[in-house]
Structure formats: structure tokens, C-alpha cells
Specification:
Elements: H1 2-30, H2 34-51, E1 53-59, E2 70-73, H3 80-85, E3 92-97, H4 106-113, E4 116-118, H5 123-135, E5 142-146, H6 163-171, E6 175-181, H7 183-186, E7 198-204, H8 218-244
Parallel strand pairs: 1-7, 2-5, 2-6, 3-4, 3-5
Antiparallel strand pairs: 6-7
């Protein structure tokens, strides 16, 4: 069994890497135009297919497709990103750690597309980078944050960072919590690991209105985001459990 998983992982990794370079070129050429969005989502779907992931998606509340949002999610695995991007109803820009900008092809393409890389050790510089992205305009574009800041290795959520709350307050955008489950079982969050085919559920939770929140009480918004993500994660875990017994 492990030999089969090992061979599958080698083949899948090669396909994912080669296609990443190809689609990164398309993204780099087109920047933030629709062709780049198509390329990114196509690569995400190829990644899910090659890993053997069965994607399950649910919205707990219909989103207004004409609006932009700040999306906030838990983080369990490198598979979270392709799973979420394959589901999002609008273009989104990730707020990601600076180290990812150094990944060949990927970093260049992500920068051209408008994703934001931040230094997690310098909160002021990170805030400036996010502010610069906001100042470019958010019409039709959502901002995405992994609120824990890193991948969790257990089911318990890590402490939430304040960046997503501050960005929402600075833009006036309501927040959408996202819960992901099953991704950690498909690909372990740390170290070298094998692809293990299985279900990944992505649940978009109920919108968190920004009304009534201010920068002075941003901790209250952070708590609301955490509670929303927890509810979405609980629903995602239920969907994964049901998929496994089918």
C-alpha cells in the first residue's frame, strides 16, 4: 500500500510542479486579468485531481456575488489553498508569508497577480503591505487570510492573528469565515508526506457584518471571526465523516 502511495505521490508531484510552471507563465503574462484567474483555478483543480482529493463544498449562507469580502479560514495543510480557490465565488488575493515569494515561478506569478507577501516578524511592514494592496482597489476582489498564521497539526484552532480584522475594518468589507476539513489527511501539514486520496470539505460560513465594529474593539471582531470559522469547521468535519462512510 505504501509503495502505491509513494509512486502516486511521485507522479502527482511531477505533474503538479510542471503544470505550476506552465500556468505561472500564463499568470505572469496576464497579471490580474481573467485569463490569470482561469489559469490559477485550473491548476488548483489539477492539483486536487492528482492528489486524489474529493472536493465537497457548501455555503451556510448564500453570498452576494456582486460584493467583495474578507475571507478568513483555518489552516491544516498545503491542500487548503487549491481546495479553497476551487470554490471561491470571486477573485481573491492571499495574504501569505514572505518566504513563499521565493518559490520559483510561484512567487513571481503570485506577485504579478496581486497576492500579498508579508514579513510575519514585522507587523508594521505587514500592515503597510496589506494597506498598499487595499489602496490599489478591492472592487470585485476579496482578501484572504489564514487567521492562525501557520498550519495547525491538531484539530484545535491556533490563536487568531488580528490582520484579517484590521483589513476588514480598513476596507469596510464584511467577513466570511471558511472551514476546511480533510485536507490534513490527504497531505500532512509538516515535513515530507504522501498523498492519501480522500474527501476535503470546504464550508463557507455565515457572513460576519462589519457594522458595529471599530478599530478600537478589533478584538471583538477577531473573536467573531474565530467563532464563525469554528462553526464552519464543525460543518466541514461532518461532511467529511459522511463522505468516508459512503
Amino acid at each position: 500500500m505504501k509503495l502505491v502511495l509513494f509512486v502516486r505521490t511521485i507522479i502527482a508531484s511531477l505533474v503538479i510542479t510542471v503544470t505550476m510552471a506552465f500556468f505561472a507563465l500564463i499568470i505572469g503574462i496576464f497579471g490580474e486579468r481573467p485569463a490569470a484567474e482561469w489559469a490559477l483555478r485550473t491548476w488548483c483543480r489539477i492539483t486536487l485531481f492528482m492528489s486524489g482529493a474529493e472536493l465537497i463544498f457548501r455555503e451556510l449562507e448564500p453570498l452576494d456575488r456582486s460584493r467583495s469580502y474578507v475571507f478568513v479560514s483555518n489552516h491544516t495543510s498545503n491542500m487548503d489553498v487549491p481546495a479553497i480557490l476551487a470554490c471561491t465565488p470571486e477573485p481573491i488575493r492571499f495574504i501569505a508569508k514572505r518566504e513563499l515569494s521565493y518559490v520559483p515561478f510561484f512567487g513571481w506569478a503570485a506577485g504579478r497577480m496581486g497576492h500579498v507577501f508579508v514579513n510575519r516578524k514585522d507587523s508594521h511592514a505587514a500592515a503597510r503591505a496589506i494597506r498598499h494592496r487595499i489602496d490599489k482597489g478591492m472592487s470585485g476582489i476579496g482578501l484572504f487570510f489564514f487567521a492562525e498564521g501557520t498550519r495547525a497539526t491538531t484539530d484545535a484552532l491556533l490563536p487568531f492573528k488580528k490582520g484579517a480584522a484590521v483589513a476588514a475594518l480598513n476596507t469596510g468589507l464584511d467577513c466570511v469565515p471558511i472551514g476546511v476539513a480533510g485536507a490534513r489527511e490527504v497531505l500532512a501539514p509538516k515535513g515530507l508526506s504522501l498523498f492519501r486520496p480522500g474527501p476535503i470539505a470546504v464550508v463557507f460560513g455565515r457572513v460576519i457584518p462589519l457594522a458595529g465594529h471599530t478599530l478600537k474593539d478589533r478584538d471583538a471582531l477577531v473573536q467573531a471571526q474565530r467563532e464563525g470559522v469554528e462553526a464552519a469547521v464543525a460543518e466541514a468535519r461532518t461532511l467529511v465523516a459522511k463522505a468516508r462512510v459512503r
